[in-house]
Amino acid sequence: MKQTLTLILLCLFHTVLWAQDSSCPNAKVFPISTNQGKPTDLSHYLSFTSTESPTSNLTEVKSLFKLNLVTSADGVVPNFGNTSKQYWFCFILRNDLNHNKRTITFIKYPLLDQVQFFALRESGEVNQNIQGRKFPFQNRDKDYRGFSFETELLPSETVTYYVGIKTDSSVSVPLMVAEEKHFDSYESLDILLQGMFFGIVCVMSLYNLFVYFMVRDKAYIFYVNYLIFAAILFQLSLQGLLPVLFFQNSPELVYNAHNFLYFLFLLSCFPMSITFMNLKENAPRLYLGFMGLSVIPMVCLLLLPFLPYRELNQFGDLLSSFLAFYALFVSYYVSFVKKFPPARFYFFGYFMLIIGGLTTVLKYMGFFPVNIFTENAFQAATAIEVLLMAFGLGDRISVVQKEKERIQLKAEINKQKLIAYGKELKLAQKLQESTLPQILPKFPGLSIKTGYFPASLVGGDFYDLTVYGKQQICGLIADVTGHGVPAAIEAAMLKIAYMQTLAFANKPGKVLESINQALAGNYKNQFLTASAIFIDLDQKVLKVANAGHPALYKFNENSKSIDVIRPKGKLIGFSKEGLYSDEVHSIQKGDKLLLFTDGIWDLWENGDSGEDALLDWLLKRKAESVESLYGGIDEHIRLRNKEGPADDDITFLLFEIT
């Protein structure tokens, strides 16, 4: 009888154990005394399953564990990346002590939208709680940035827990358990570390803002902008501190703010990176690449109200990964290829940020396990990057200051050069003025007007009028190559050659031949055009010779067309053997003559040939005096100068036989 009763009791006991185990299969019982109540990772004691159709009823949950495939965590923190499935976790706690224990089951990862806790006691009583990012903060049993569930375990009591997780972000479930007093210590340390991080970032933001107002370098204001969005606002959301500090009763705002701050963080990277590395000057093509990529987060911000949270969040992870490698490549190129020292701080700082950021992204995507390193990598890397960037900005100021001093020194040197050049131009102007007639000759029976308008302070045109005998006057007009001091020197050489020629030359062809022989070979292989005339008022004869110069125009009030007089002749300086023939034309009272350099054609040029327009203009005003014609040309010059400075020198000689 005793044996039979013992067998029955053993069978009943085995049945109870089997029922307990079957309600949470593949899970080992965790005795509270194992770690003396300190925060303990439950991954060694977890089993889990998943479902495509979310459930919230305990009966259905228990059915899932009976019917679905159940997996043991085997010491690995569950991490499933971005998925739409709902995951249910099961574990068993046993109070192996002889007094009550208040325990806190908590999840350190704060980006879970819905977290359901069920605690099934041996008595059949069920304690439950639902919380998450989409629920008010007061649903949590503790004022903790993660999710917490409080249970009072009786002596020798065993409690089975079910935890359901669903989120539009990555499913990462670092489940922990601790006695209340140890949890409070753990939470205090977490608050201290978070406070240290945000304290460092806030101090650096204020410091760099102050420096910006001191130096007015836009790199600082872009860096402060980056710190605010990346290291403060986005980190507040990423670390689950927005509902703790600001929006306890606004879960939808907390939920929607995450992607918004995510893309603001990515957008703030661009102006900071571009100015920090002086990309526009150091790497123009890479600068254009940055500008093009900056459009992507802008578009994502605009699409936030229209696209699902999950898809945008996944795209943000991919975009941040790509930008991390691209920025690392660009900073390496600017630092070590273009040798811009401040960019090295950016390179190493961003390298640290990339390690932390990629670790976090890959953890969220399910490729890296959840542990103390992957949980805090991004935040720790951000703190290091903030400090390195501050050093880099200081170095950048030093480099920019040196560059500014170099530019100022160069500007001072250029200023002195300009002053010296200005003095040379004034000297050249005086030299050139000395080559031109100071007073026009007064000659009975001849009215003369001349115009000289250089395109710059010193021009390349030359003219001269000399009385030759009692009834003759000799005139020369020339276009010297170039401007400035060289042109003035060449004009002086031409003046000397011309004055020497007048001693023996008695016709214009001889004048040009003598000038050519004097200058050819001694004129630095440069050429000039010239036209020489002799006006004999006694014989009423005009003699003309030309060396590649524009024609002389002859007309009077009875002319039906303008006589264009241009004898053939090579440029002066081309060859010493050059010969220049004379053309002889009769003149009479009322005849007008116009000699000029080719700059005058530009005054009448308006889509068509300036020469044809000038001929038409002269023919219409053929009856006017030389004074009136001079006034008309002068008016054309002033009107043209309003459109912009002339491209060429303008010189002309007007004669009228009276």
UniProtKB/TrEMBL annotation:
<protein>
    <submittedName>
        <fullName>Serine phosphatase RsbU</fullName>
    </submittedName>
</protein>
<keyword id="KW-0812">Transmembrane</keyword>
<keyword id="KW-0472">Membrane</keyword>
<dbReference type="Pfam" id="PF07695">
    <property type="entry name" value="7TMR-DISM_7TM"/>
</dbReference>
<dbReference type="Pfam" id="PF07696">
    <property type="entry name" value="7TMR-DISMED2"/>
</dbReference>
<keyword id="KW-0732">Signal</keyword>
<dbReference type="InterPro" id="IPR036457">
    <property type="entry name" value="PPM-type-like_dom_sf"/>
</dbReference>
<keyword id="KW-1133">Transmembrane helix</keyword>
<keyword id="KW-0378">Hydrolase</keyword>
<dbReference type="InterPro" id="IPR052016">
    <property type="entry name" value="Bact_Sigma-Reg"/>
</dbReference>
<feature type="transmembrane region" description="Helical">
    <location>
        <begin position="318"/>
        <end position="335"/>
    </location>
</feature>
<feature type="signal peptide">
    <location>
        <begin position="1"/>
        <end position="19"/>
    </location>
</feature>
<feature type="transmembrane region" description="Helical">
    <location>
        <begin position="191"/>
        <end position="215"/>
    </location>
</feature>
<feature type="transmembrane region" description="Helical">
    <location>
        <begin position="286"/>
        <end position="306"/>
    </location>
</feature>
<dbReference type="Pfam" id="PF07228">
    <property type="entry name" value="SpoIIE"/>
</dbReference>
<feature type="transmembrane region" description="Helical">
    <location>
        <begin position="347"/>
        <end position="365"/>
    </location>
</feature>
<dbReference type="InterPro" id="IPR001932">
    <property type="entry name" value="PPM-type_phosphatase-like_dom"/>
</dbReference>
<dbReference type="InterPro" id="IPR011623">
    <property type="entry name" value="7TMR_DISM_rcpt_extracell_dom1"/>
</dbReference>
<feature type="transmembrane region" description="Helical">
    <location>
        <begin position="260"/>
        <end position="279"/>
    </location>
</feature>
<feature type="transmembrane region" description="Helical">
    <location>
        <begin position="377"/>
        <end position="394"/>
    </location>
</feature>
<dbReference type="InterPro" id="IPR011622">
    <property type="entry name" value="7TMR_DISM_rcpt_extracell_dom2"/>
</dbReference>
<dbReference type="GO" id="GO:0016791">
    <property type="term" value="F:phosphatase activity"/>
</dbReference>
<feature type="domain" description="PPM-type phosphatase">
    <location>
        <begin position="443"/>
        <end position="657"/>
    </location>
</feature>
<feature type="transmembrane region" description="Helical">
    <location>
        <begin position="227"/>
        <end position="248"/>
    </location>
</feature>
